[in-house]
Every structure is written in structure tokens, then in C-alpha cells.
Amino acid sequence: MVMLIAGNWKMNGLAADAAEQVRALADGIGRAGGAELLICPPATLIPIMARALEEAGIRDRVALGGQDCHIAEKGAHTGDISAWMLKDIGCSHVIVGHSERRIDHGEDDDLIRAKAEAALEAGLVAIVCIGETEAQRQAEETELVLSHQLRGSMPSGATRENAVIAYEPVWAIGTGHTPTAEDVAHVHRHIRTVAEDFFPDDLRILYGGSVKPDNAGALLAVDGVDGALVGGASLKAEDFLAIAAAAKV
Ligand SMILES: O=C(CO)COP(=O)(O)O
What GO cellular-component annotations does this UniProt entry give (predicted)? Predict the structure, then answer.
């Protein structure tokens, strides 16, 4: 199975950065091996990146995605962006339920599931994020929390083609700390078992949280890891490509 290496730029990047990163991606794309590449820049940069990737001749190698979407197609929702709008500007994917949205914007599982279902309806692949906090980990509630988030936030009708699960332990995001390979294997096995209960397909499960060029090989080699969702290290094309190069083929 081809791995998906996804970059989440979060709220980073101006037009000049996008142009520079696309140039660097084009220069180094040969190093990415066979991995499927996706970048989710801030919404402001999506059309700029789409054009730049096209001009650089690598639009078919790098997919684009949003970082969030509204549940409705359109309407009076100031500041929001719909899945259909993302599709319209060239996105194929959208991240929903990232812990930063769950925490900063109080998003709950019901809302995230509705967003994921809107994404599917609009023809996007929904990347649904789940993950335990440090306190939940300390309380040994990881499996319980993940089961609950999975059951609550996965869209009905999820298939291998239209949905991806991203396991992102909140305590590993932006901290430089990562779970051990054994822990990642154990958690991914748990997620797969829960997901199998209600989806016929074997869904892709990405690992996210402090993935860097120097640990990508070890994390991506873990049984049950189908790719990575990369934050900080995706902002530099060189690092992003090095992570992609570490993907299993
Ligand atoms: O939140 C993440 C990706 O969505 C992970 O971020 P970092 O790779 O910066 O830890």
C-alpha cells in the first residue's frame, strides 16, 4: 500500500514562502520516492500553491488539502470555508478534528463527524484526527479516548478511498516527544480493531506528532502505520521530502 505523507502547515506561510517551497519541492521531488504527497497550507495559499505546482510541473505529484471545513455547503457563516469551496480551488483532501481545532475552537466529535461527512459529500478525502492528551495518557485512558473519538467523529460511509484516520497524540504535537515504536504499533492496532467494527474497509492510519527527518524512518517502519501527518517539519520542503523518502513502498 502506498504511504500518504501529509504536511499540515497550520497558520504559517505567506505567498513568498509558498513560491519558495514549491520551487524546492520541484527541485527535490525525485527524492520523495513512491509516497503519495499532500500539503495542507493555510486556505489563503491554496490557489497560489495550485498554480505554482502546476507551473513547476509537479501538480500531479503533490495534492492539496484544507485544514478545516464548515458543515454546510454555503451560507451565512462569516469566516468559514466550505468543503465545496476547497474542492473548487483544487483540494482533494481536508483535515478535520485536529486537536488544535478541538481545543482552540471547542470542536466536539459530533461537529467533526458532520464536517467529515460534508467533506465526503463534496468529494474530498476526510483526514480525521484523533489523539489523547498527556493527562489522558497518564490516566491510562488512551484506548478509551481513541475508541470514543473514532466512534464519534468518523463519517458514516467511510471507505479506504474517502477517509483517512490520523493518530496524533496531543502531547507529541510540536514537543519533540514521540511515542515509542511499540506504543505506536499498539495504538494503531487498537484503532484498526475499533475501525473494523464499523467500516468494511481497512482504513489508512497515519501517525502525527513531532515527525522529523531523523525519526521518520523508525516511525514509518512501524507495523500498521500507513503514512504521516507532519506539522513543523513540513514547512521546509527539504525536510518534508526527507520524511517522504523514509516511507515504505
Ligand atoms: O499537528 C501535527 C500535524 O497535524 C503535528 O505537528 P508537529 O509535526 O509540528 O508536531
Answer: cytosol
